[in-house]
Amino acid sequence: MEFRKSSSYTVSIVLFIFFSSSRAASHYSCDGPLLSALPLASFESSSHAFDSQAPHFAKLTRRDGGGGWSPKLTDRYPWLQVDLRDRMEVTAVATQGRHGSADWVSGYMLLFSDTGRVWKQYRQEDNVGRFVGNVDADGVVHHKLPHPIRTRFLRFIPLEWNSSGWVGLRAEVYGCTYKSYVADFDGRSSLLYRFNQKSMSTAKDVISLRFKSRQAEGVLLHGEGQRGDYITLELHRGKLALHLNLDDIRVRTSGAREAVTLGSLLDDQHWHSVLIERFNKQVNFTLDRHTQHFRTRGGGDTLEVDYELSFGGIPLPGKPGTFLRRNFHGCMENLYYNGVNIIDLAKRRKPQMYSVGNVTFSCSGPQLVAATFLSSSSSFLSLPAPPPTLEGFSVRLQFRTWNADGLLLSGRLAQEPQRLVLQISSGRLHLTHQTTALKTSEVSTGQRVNDGLWHSVSLSTRGMQITMTLDNEPSSTIQLQDQLESGSGFFFGGCPLSQDDGDCTNPTMAFQGCMRLILINNQPIDFILVQRGRLGTYHQLQFDICGIRDRCLPNFCEHGGRCSQSWSSFQCDCTGTGYSGATCHNSIYEASCEAYRLIGSSSGYFSIDPDGSGPLGPMQVYCNMTEQKVWTVVLHNTTNAVKVQGSTPERPHVMQINYSASPDQLHALVASSDQCQQEVVYQCRKSRLFNTWDGTPLSWWLDRSGEKRTYWGGYLPGVQQCSCSLEENCMDMNYFCNCDADKDTWVNDTGILSYKDHLPVREITIGDTHRPGSEAVYNIGPLRCYGDRSLWNAASFYQESSYLHFPTLQSTLSVDISFYFKTGAPSGVFLENLGLKDFIRVELSSPSTVTFSFDVGDGPVILAVKSPVSLNDRQWHWVQAERSVKEASLQVDQLPLRFLETPADGHLHLKLNSQLFVGGSASRQQGFLGCVRALRVNGAHLDLDERAKLTPGVSSGCPGHCSNSASLCHNRGRCIEQSSGYVCDCTHSAYTGPSCKDEVSVSFERGSSVTYAFRDSFLVMRDSSSQASSSSSTESRESVAFSLVTTQSPAMLLTISTFSQQYVAIILARNGSLQIWYQLHEEGKPDVLTPTPSNLADGRLHRVRIHREAKDVYVQVDQESKKYTLSSDMELNSVRSLTLGKVTGTDALDEKVGAAGSRGFVGCFSSVQYNHVAPLKVALLNPASSLVTVRGNLVESNCGALSVSTSNSLSDHVEEPDRANEQDGGVTQHDSAVIGGVVTAVVFSSLCVLAAITRFLYQHRQAQRTASLQEKETQRRLEAAYHAELHMHSSTLHMRDSLREYYI
Fold first, then answer.
1. What distances in angstroms separate CA 925 from CA 802, 882, 921, 929, 942, one per listed residue?
2. Distance CA 1291, CA 422 (A)
3. Tens digit of pLDDT for each residue in 381-416?
4. Which residues contact 50 (CB under 8 A, 6 or more apart)?
5. pTM
6. Long-range own/partner contacts, residues 547-552 (CB < 8 A, 24 or more apart)
């Protein structure tokens, strides 16, 4: 089946009209008061303080009696219950306090039930379960329910009340009567609706029903046809699954059935609404207001069902009452199939209906009362144990939970000090029999019993063994030495916090979930008696309700993140998605190749994400950074030239161009680029492009929208001409294209397509190669774009009352905002968007503090990041603010991330209705003075430059020399504005000089070393603060780069050590080969990497780069690249120091590493960089720094530059003798011809030998040159692959041009 997002799903007009008519609701009034006419007996409560405050005085606006209901002061869990006498449709509620008193309820919970048992909490929008109550005794607070309730019983649960008074409540409920047609299926019955003809074939269907189930499995609806069509609606593991196929022979032959699923926990004994709408292959599948749109599989557009539809099960043909699959156990109401009321027909015993088994027309099944354990630390239920049977004692119960750990049962046995403990541990069920403090017996069973489904477990003793049984799995037993007897009672779910005698101890945490059907020694436990205090004791429990929620439905993990949950929260696994954050919202890739160059990357394959956190995923491109412009290259499937012959206008040659990115991704790339182009190489012989009598083109291409285009390379859109016409150099000026001259020789109409709104080319059609001698050859080049329109898109605000306005923020679940700013003002509002109560704002609240504040309905939230230096320094600073359903965060430059978790049951949607103000606020106060650039909201670029052109007090762009910092400062250098020019800050670069291009080289003598001590961990682990959310651990990342010249081996090059006995060592082995040692586990063996067997101690310059991402290590030695996988992804915790050269105190190192460390290093180091630190430069330029310790003699050198120049001069020197030899050979041959008759035979022989040697040397030189070219090409391919892997997971926050400086 083909799935589509709801936001982008388009339904035809016919489908819309058909479905709209089927969904049309009758416009009747359903807001009448329902409580005012009820008798006194309809009101109940947990207790009442006095007779004058009895529950029947709780009618709205009533002042008789005590003016309302109030419970006893000793009532721990007060509630007020109303019986509406019949099922009603409730649309609103209203509350008051108790008249003339200080008693009122300021917050409450609303429960509903059909029977007065098995309650369910009503949740408003965003799953908020708390209703806002009163602030005084007589004011009325009215709540219109977002979706009506169809119920008979309502219960008000006070949560908060006046702190100076007590609970006081008067209430009213609004709605109307509700009528329905109900059928009850007992798990062995079904209804069959038989057609008037042999089969029913429909192009459109509407099926609607409501159901409530007592089981997690069961078929609600089924129909099938002989040609392979079928429709099945069933419950499976508590979820609703729809199987639908329209004449798909593949499904019929394979037997595989794919399903579309909705919902979960649907076996909660409460009503759920289902609507299935189908028109041809398009289907809307709705469950409780959540809709999934999809297209069915199969070759047909109609659903053909033979004979009948069955409801409640799939009976076996010819055997009534026998079912192929588990049938439905529960109730259905208002069951309609294409307008036919199925239950009404069955109730009136119409001939087209056939009943299998016992189907009744009322819903009165047994109610399974549950208890909810609310706290993972303090919930418990203590119950006495009835006398055991002769066979021994037994305990049975059912439970459901999301938590992987929790105590189910603990009890002391009659034989002191023996005890039994039943618990969930890591998703498995564990039973422990403790005989003494040191002696235990254990068994375990089950897998992932924390799946949210009901599970049954029983413990029983018989003879000399304890038996544990889970669901239908085989039993597990513990053998005993003596027959056991139960003690006086058991603790369920947890232990009291005040338990000091050791009777009960929570092994890990208390149980958080639901329990029901507890039986002790075959005696069922009545939870209502427990609730009323007549049986056992309890704490932090809710009775007659199972409060479990599926927090992964809907799935708030974005971009394909996988959701997992506990009882109170959910987590997102973003592995492999290309996104990070608490909800997988933030892209880990840069938005463009231009952005990759700004962080110091070189040419290679990269993943870019032009829309950032938007719906489009990352795309792989090639970034060509060798030119002044950074080109983004997108490849496609047609890379070689295509030869075309035999095509006619009626049967043309058609080639589809499939790119390595989707059309939407390509559109985003083109839109965000300054310019794009695509070369079309077209050569022809007797093959015309146009030149027909009626002007119809013979060849054309389709643009990205599928529109036919007839202009060719280099010309303007809309004109049927080629580039030669524009350049006025066509071979025949009577035609606008060379090919239209129809010559019998090869001609060329190659050109560049550069109108980017039409790019890329999606298809090419050639239609005139059928004549004798006619043919064409074409080649479509890759899409090439340069520039990033958003990166330097800026606006300058020079009036405090000025601002730019944009449309209201639309993404209400997750909002992310990022931008750069520079200012000299002490404060100002960057951005603001308001709603009636909700708002979002980012501002510079003080010269050194950026503040992110918002309100989604739970009260204002403020996050602030304070910088140790002023932010109004007229330098660029970077800000990223994000608010999701999981957490809010604020990042400024490279300062530590500030985050705050959102309330687990708080509001989700940010409801805004004003325009988005940039550079100011709606009040036109506290406006921002300065520059803002690269503003992105939810991944979308806001065009500040264009909007500023139309706004007073704002100018487009931002003056300053650093706007093109990418070409001014190199090697991670940062451009800093000056009053008259700029300077490059090379603090985080291993290079120096005006543009950070001069290498720093140092010669080491024997025994010399440089040790750099780290004192600020977040500068070492560059991403730990900027990307890690509160719920996920930091990925381990290290980057090391250096150059070396040496003739010594073995040798210690570089050592990184931590306070936790971890280390990374880079050495030269005895044979001169490079070895990299990773010791990440203190007790484990180190990982040893040998990237190349070549001898690096050869006196030549070698460059080494090492980059680690978790377990993956990418190593480049000179031009050779390799990837390795470590045994662990553990990060380096608390890096202590980095040492170049000799290492002392090698006890923690491996023997081979220690030996190399004692030898040290003799030679030259150049351009040493570890993450953001350049230790060699610090040691050379600031030797007095407390961070650096130098031992031995260090001499500044230029070995890096000398080695490069020397190798160049040597290669030049090699080539010149070759050319001289060639010239000399020619002269020798000429002279031989002139004086050949004079010279002697000896001279002639010598010349022949010399000629043979020259020819041999020439051929050998050519072979070397060919091999060198092949080797360079291989190296280029390896380097491209290395860069593709190296940057595949690079962070969006990693080494931007706005990084805060770390001054030595």
1. 9, 24, 6, 12, 22
2. 45
3. 999 988 877 778 899 999 999 999 999 999 888 777
4. 66, 70
5. 0.70
6. 547/121, 547/372, 547/374, 547/514, 548/265, 548/372, 548/400, 548/401, 548/402, 548/452, 548/513, 548/514, 549/127, 549/265, 550/264, 550/265, 550/452, 551/402
